[in-house]
């Protein structure tokens, strides 16, 4: 990697008052703080409610006892270290256990905890992954994620790509990365990475990069240029982000994000319900409130920018929060861990304080998809 990222790892280096640093120290001891210098420069430290500050600077409410270490039960779908196979057609690889900053609401913060609580899950055995994929012809796509897949060296990214792209039934490959927000220079200063993507992103074997922009202010000139370089290299770009209290929990902010992304050629793809992960209490927005914010934002943009879905990555599958009625909330399986749940609709009595499917207790109706599912070809 030609240019190294410069990190700040100590709260002492932030322009906070001595009293604030004192208050936040126990939080950072439990959930570490680290952030690229680039991203810190985007923060207005004079504003305690600055949305970008909320993204990376610890907050006392994180110490509230709330959430679980693995709320989507990823352990259940782990087929070898760093490899998850939850949906028939997709294999998810935790290729890296590093990021260029720690989002306070990270749903995989188990990767970043200190001491015995840390679970540094990542792919260890590439050959074993290839054997697994070769033995599973139903898998049409692979996601390299983490952590941040683009924190890997370009030579490691090449090794991963070349190992899986030649498997005949793999039709497309995704890389999940928040570097466009935290460290766009990684893309701007590495022509070899762009050349690698240009070489391999082909009809029938398309490469996708899934960016993670949470707020329009993250779309700096550098970030926009990094996206454009990848688009020109023939890579498709999609954006996913969680809905976070104090960051993007406003329809105007979210609509601006969707609009700007669409203008750049980055398709807004998923907005996630914030997972009930340890320490995430200050960042979570209840499901029904989140749905209303999201729908208002979608109402402000055109069809191109509103293909985005509001989803919850639950252990059972990816559930779209599809609609609210006066009395009920309607979920639809967008992806199902068990094929029998494909397309199923779940209708629950409303519960404005619910943060996760498990908080709903009154199932009003469960409607499976009619008829048998066709066999995968
Ligand atoms: S970029 Fe993703 S994996 Fe990295 S800290 Fe943020 S949420 Fe966690």
Automatic annotation (TrEMBL):
It comes from the Bacteria. Residues 85-307 form the Radical SAM core domain. Keywords: 4Fe-4S, Iron, Iron-sulfur, Metal-binding, Pyridoxal phosphate, S-adenosyl-L-methionine. The keyword 4Fe-4S applies. One of its GO terms (molecular function) is catalytic activity. Its cofactor is [4Fe-4S] cluster; pyridoxal 5'-phosphate. The keyword NAD does not apply. Belongs to the radical SAM superfamily. KamA family. PANTHER family: L-LYSINE 2,3-AMINOMUTASE AQ_1632-RELATED, LYSINE 2,3-AMINOMUTASE-RELATED. This is KamA family radical SAM protein. It comes from Thermosulfurimonas marina. The lineage of its organism: Bacteria, Pseudomonadati, Thermodesulfobacteriota, Thermodesulfobacteria, Thermodesulfobacteriales.
């Amino acid at each position: 990697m030609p240019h190294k990222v410069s990190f700040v790892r100590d709260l002492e280096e932030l322009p906070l008052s001595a009293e604030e640093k004192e208050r936040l120290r126990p939080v950072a001891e439990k959930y570490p703080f680290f952030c690229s210098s680039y991203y810190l420069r985007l923060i207005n430290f004079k504003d305690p409610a600055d949305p970008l500050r909320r993204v990376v600077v610890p907050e006392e409410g994180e110490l509230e006892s709330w959430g679980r270490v693995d709320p989507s039960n990823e352990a259940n779908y782990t087929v070898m270290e760093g490899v998850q196979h939850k949906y028939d057609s997709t294999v998810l690889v935790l290729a890296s256990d590093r990021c260029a900053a720690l989002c306070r609401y990270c749903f995989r913060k188990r990767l970043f905890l200190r001491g015995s609580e840390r679970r540094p899950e990542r792919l260890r055995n590439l050959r074993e992954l290839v054997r697994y994929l070769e033995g599973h012809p139903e898998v049409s796509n692979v996601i390299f994620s983490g952590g941040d897949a683009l924190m890997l060296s370009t030579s490691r990214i090449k090794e991963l790509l070349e190992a899986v792209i030649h498997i005949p039934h793999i039709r497309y490959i995704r890389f999940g990365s928040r570097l466009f927000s935290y460290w766009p220079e990684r893309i701007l200063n590495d022509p070899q990475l762009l050349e690698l993507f240009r070489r391999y992103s082909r009809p029938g074997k398309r490469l996708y990069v899934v960016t993670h922009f949470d707020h329009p202010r993250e779309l700096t000139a550098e970030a926009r240029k990094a996206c454009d370089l990848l688009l020109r290299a023939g890579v498709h770009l999609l954006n996913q982000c969680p809905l976070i209290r104090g960051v993007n929990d406003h329809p105007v902010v979210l609509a601006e994000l969707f609009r700007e992304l669409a203008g750049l050629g980055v398709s807004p793809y998923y907005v996630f319900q914030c997972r009930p992960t340890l320490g995430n209490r200050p960042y979570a927005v209840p499901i029904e409130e989140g749905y209303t914010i999201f729908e208002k934002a979608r109402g402000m943009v055109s069809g191109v920018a509103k293909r985005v879905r509001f989803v919850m990555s639950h252990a059972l599958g990816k559930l779209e929060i599809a609609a609210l009625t006066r009395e009920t909330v309607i979920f639809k399986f967008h992806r199902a861990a068990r094929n029998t749940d494909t397309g199923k609709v779940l209708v629950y009595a409303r519960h404005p304080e619910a943060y996760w499917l498990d908080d709903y207790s009154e199932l009003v109706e469960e409607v499976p998809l009619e008829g048998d599912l066709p066999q995968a070809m």
